[in-house]
């Protein structure tokens, strides 16, 4: 009797295995799926955008939508690729989560203050750059920190965000400083305000957005790096990348890009947005 049950059990397991395997076979691996074909069919492009970064991608709690320059550029590109009724869907990313979310196929592209760097190019593809930022510092008004050189002293604490290349840049430009890494820009600002570091470092555009919300703080030290922003796409998605670059060119040529640039940066005191524009 016992033997019969065991036999039936084995048959059952084998059955489950076969069903499971065939289900896997009918769905193509992510790396073999064509993002452009899928997005055209669903009339939707899923973008990874920041939700913690004023001016680029910030969650508006009043209507629960993400707003900013990156979000508007993503919407404009979506319309150029999919037509007027194409939908841009936004998924919240941070500096740390954006590449894993892209690689897992949770998002089709990243448009999230992301610098094109040789390291990242080993993992993902980038569109042509659409914004030229530069790394800078945010300090309390009246601070003795005036430039990145002032940070290069043992015991000096600087605040950054995990996954941002700004952290590695500080290790290069002020190797004696200690970098305290927080998980997003909202937390980094809170850490600066509570005195956990003497400066917060990331790109100038992001810092000007923070300064506009926190009048006791100012951007200092100029731009000490070059941070060209690109749209990151999975490797092997040539047709999609081509369409994104075509759409970028079109919005630059028809005035859409400039309208969006002025909307977000036209009135940001101290920030020369024309230098950042393509
Ligand atoms: N542009 C820099 C980067 O890509 C800093 C901004 C960010 O954290 O997204 O890492």
TrEMBL record:
SMART domains in alphabetical order: PBPb, PBPe
Keyword annotations: Signal, Transport
Domain Ionotropic glutamate receptor C-terminal residue range list: 53-267
Domain Solute-binding protein family 3/N-terminal intervals: 44-268
Signal peptide: none
Cytoplasm listed as a keyword: no
CDD domains (alphabetical): PBP2_GluB
Domain of life: Bacteria
GO MF terms held by the record: ligand-gated monoatomic ion channel activity
GO CC field: extracellular region; membrane; outer membrane-bounded periplasmic space
Gene3D superfamilies for the chain: Periplasmic binding protein-like II (3.40.190.10)
GO biological process, one term: amino acid transport
Pfam families (UniProt xref): SBP_bac_3
Family indicated by similarity: Belongs to the bacterial solute-binding protein 3 family.
PANTHER family recorded: ABC TRANSPORTER GLUTAMINE-BINDING PROTEIN GLNH, AMINO ACID ABC TRANSPORTER PERMEASE
Name assigned to this protein: Glutamine ABC transporter substrate-binding protein [Lactobacillus sp.]
Provenance organism: Lactiplantibacillus mudanjiangensis
């Amino acid at each position: 009797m016992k033997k019969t049950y065991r036999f039936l059990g084995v048959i059952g397991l084998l059955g489950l295995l076969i069903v499971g395997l065939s289900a896997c076979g009918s769905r193509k691996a992510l790396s073999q799926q064509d993002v452009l074909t899928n997005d055209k069919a669903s009339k939707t492009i899923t973008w990874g955008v920041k939700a913690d970064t004023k001016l680029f991608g910030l969650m508006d709690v009043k209507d629960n939508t993400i707003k900013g320059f990156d979000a508007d550029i993503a919407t404009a590109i979506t319309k150029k690729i999919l037509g007027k009724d194409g939908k841009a869907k936004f998924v919240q990313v941070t500096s740390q989560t954006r590449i894993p979310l892209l690689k897992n196929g949770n998002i089709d592209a990243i448009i999230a203050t992301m610098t094109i760097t040789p390291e990242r190019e080993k993992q993902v593809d980038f569109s042509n750059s659409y914004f030229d930022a530069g790394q800078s510092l945010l300090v309390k008004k009246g601070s003795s920190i005036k430039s990145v050189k002032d940070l290069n002293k043992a015991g000096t604490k600087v605040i950054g965000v995990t996954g941002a290349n700004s952290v590695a840049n500080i290790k290069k430009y002020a190797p004696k400083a200690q970098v305290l890494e927080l998980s997003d820009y909202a937390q980094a600002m809170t850490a600066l305000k509570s005195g956990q570091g003497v400066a917060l470092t990331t790109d100038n555009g992001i810092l000007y957005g923070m300064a506009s919300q926190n009048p006791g703080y100012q951007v200092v030290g100029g731009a000490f790096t070059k941070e060209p922003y690109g749209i990151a796409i999975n490797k092997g998605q040539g047709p999609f990348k081509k369409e994104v670059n075509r759409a970028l060119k079109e919005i630059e040529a028809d005035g859409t890009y400039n309208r969006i640039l002025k909307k977000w940066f036209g009135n940001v005191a101290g920030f020369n947005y024309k230098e950042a524009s393509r």
